[in-house]
């Protein structure tokens, strides 16, 4: 019985300390306040939540997105390089036109980049998805 209690306690600690995930993909309405494209497949952009935080507890988040296959060495990448570029192109168009856009994460879609400061994140891939409501959403992937 004592061993089972120890195992349960260890499991609970591991679950509680895991990075937050968003099942299926949650998205929020944002404005892109800055965007710097460093290559065809890499960009850094700043998102500001319109009615809610971009990512708890960040009302504004800086995201560096650089396509990387290293994130999925054991499986097929969930996003192609071309799909990532389409998502970056969509963000660039919305930034240029000052349009509201939707941004979300799938799985552990972002990694904290604490070296860069609070509310800075890294993404390994972006995808552009049409929702059942016919809205376009850019989703970030870091781990699946």
* CATH topology label: OB fold (Dihydrolipoamide Acetyltransferase, E2P)
CATH architecture: Beta Barrel
Specify the number of helices: 2
Strand content: 35-45%
- Helix percent reads 10-25%
Taking the sheet with the most strands, its summary is: 8 strands, mixed
Order of helices and strands: HEEEHEEEEE
How many strand units? 8
Task: Give the uncertain stretches in residue-range form.
Answer: 5-23
Between the first and last Cα atoms, what is the distance in angstroms? 35 Å
Structure class: alpha+beta
Residue-averaged pLDDT: 83
Strand order of the largest sheet: 5-6-3-2-1-4-8-7
| CATH class bucket | Mainly Beta
Oligomer: single chain
Please tell me the total number of domains.
1
What's the overall geometry? Answer: globular
What does this structure look like?
This protein has 144 residues and is of the alpha+beta class. It has a single domain (21-141), classed as OB fold (Dihydrolipoamide Acetyltransferase, E2P). The chain has helices at residues 2-17, 81-96; strands at 22-39, 42-49, 60-66, 101-107, 111-112, 120-123, 125-130, 136-141. The protein has an 8-stranded mixed β-sheet with strand order 5-6-3-2-1-4-8-7, covered by helices on one side. The chain is globular. Mean pLDDT is 83; it is low at 5-23.
């Amino acid at each position: 019985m004592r061993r089972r209690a120890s195992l349960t306690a260890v499991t609970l600690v591991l679950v509680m300390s895991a990075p937050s995930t968003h099942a299926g993909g949650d998205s929020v309405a944002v404005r892109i306040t800055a965007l710097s494209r460093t290559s065809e497949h890499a960009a850094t952009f700043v998102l500001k939540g319109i009615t809610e935080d971009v990512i708890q507890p960040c009302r504004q988040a800086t995201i560096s997105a650089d396509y990387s296959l290293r994130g999925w060495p054991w499986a097929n990448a969930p996003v192609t390089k071309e799909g990532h570029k389409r998502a970056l192109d969509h963000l660039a168009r919305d930034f240029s036109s000052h349009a509201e856009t939707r941004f979300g994460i799938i799985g552990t879609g972002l990694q904290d980049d604490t070296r860069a400061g609070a509310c800075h994140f890294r993404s390994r891939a972006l995808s552009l998805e049409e929702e059942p409501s016919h809205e376009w959403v850019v989703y970030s992937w870091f781990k699946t």
